[in-house]
Specification:
Radius of gyration: 31 Å
Number of helices: 13
Helix content: 40-55%
Strand content: 5-15%
Strand order of the largest sheet: 3-2-4
Length: 329
């Protein structure tokens, strides 16, 4: 650092002059918490949509899917969807128990965990609950890396927002003033000018002095955030708007492309996670119901031909109509 010109006037800077500044605009949430919380939130949204597209779920049992915050123990506030989301986000094993008599589902700990675990070792299933294993669930690892990049972009955006509120007082001949004055008069004057501007009062400054707010270019950050959202959506097989909540379709767009993309991605989660877990836990048999209106409309066109066909019985026709309408048989 020796010999570097600096604001210390005409003398040379030394190592003792180096100042390590703290983070000017610290983000309220640490990186690890942001990644885990966001992962859980994404998985909860996906599993909730799996439930919305399911058929054959008893209403009373479905209540155990949701969080219920009327409880003394915070561990007992989590519904089955939250429990599965946590296990997926943290890439760990978990046992979930369900008591039919009390209609209560919760994470199995201690002896309850051991009982379910031993049942799975012997017969790969248990009457007391389910055992899930997401230790090799690579999607969480990949998405966590994308969320890590997203967090950095949000940090940059947060810092730029902070800078956009920071008034810059560019005093003419500041180095000369600082070097030739041993007192703090120039600092007091600068502080008085800035405080007056913040308070909305008029100030008198030199014609060569300048007061301005930093110019913030948010476009690169916005583009980065959208790009990371696209990466996450691509990994999950859903539309970008499903992840970001931002819909950019024009007036001429029907939104069908997003609907198809979301349904295809949700269907994967339904058959690989939601259905096997819920079928095993509640001893039910769920079916996937499409929300693709175009497919439903095309199927509905067939109904008049089936009605006039002697090869189709009334029972078969009724079952087909129920399928098109998404109703239980």
């Amino acid at each position: 650092m020796s010999g570097v010109f600096s604001f210390w006037g005409n003398r040379k800077q030394t190592m003792n002059d180096v100042i390590r500044l703290p983070e000017v605009f610290p983000f309220g949430l640490c990186r690890r918490d942001f990644i885990i919380f966001k992962l859980i939130s994404i998985y909860e949204n996906l599993l909730t949509q799996c439930y919305n597209r399911s058929r054959g779920f008893p209403e009373d049992m479905a209540k155990t899917l949701w969080n219920n915050y009327e409880a003394l123990d915070p561990l007992n506030t989590r519904g089955v969807i939250r429990l599965l989301s946590v296990a997926m986000a943290e890439r760990r094993t978990m046992a979930i128990s369900y008591d039919r008599t009390t209609n209560v589902a919760k994470e199995a700990l201690g002896e309850a965990f051991n009982e379910i675990y031993e049942d799975y070792k012997e017969k790969t299933k248990s009457d007391k609950g389910i055992y899930v294993n997401f230790e090799l669930y690579y999607k969480s690892k990949i998405i966590a890396e994308y969320l890590n990049l997203l967090y950095s972009a949000l940090l940059s955006a947060y810092a730029q927002l902070g800078l956009s509120r920071a008034i810059q007082f560019k005093a003419d001949k500041l180095r000369e003033t600082q070097a030739n004055n041993s007192n703090t008069e120039w600092k007091d004057q600068a502080k008085e000018v800035v405080d007056s501007v913040l308070a909305g009062r008029a100030v008198l400054i030199s014609k060569d002095d300048d007061l301005k707010l930093p110019e913030v270019d948010a476009d690169p950050i916005e583009n980065a955030i959208e790009f990371y959202g696209q990466l996450i959506a691509g990994e999950l097989g859903v539309s970008t708007s499903f992840i970001t909540g931002i819909i950019r379709n024009g007036m001429n767009s029907t939104g069908e492309a997003e609907l198809v993309a979301d349904e295809n991605g949700i269907k994967v989660f339904f058959y690989s996670i939601f259905k096997p877990c819920c079928d095993g836990l509640y001893k039910i048999n769920l079916e996937f119901v499409t929300e693709n209106y175009r497919k439903t409309a095309e199927l509905a066109k067939v109904i008049p031909y089936l009605e006039s066909s002697e090869a189709v019985s009334n029972e078969q026709l009724e079952r087909f109509v129920n399928y098109v309408l998404g109703e239980n048989d």
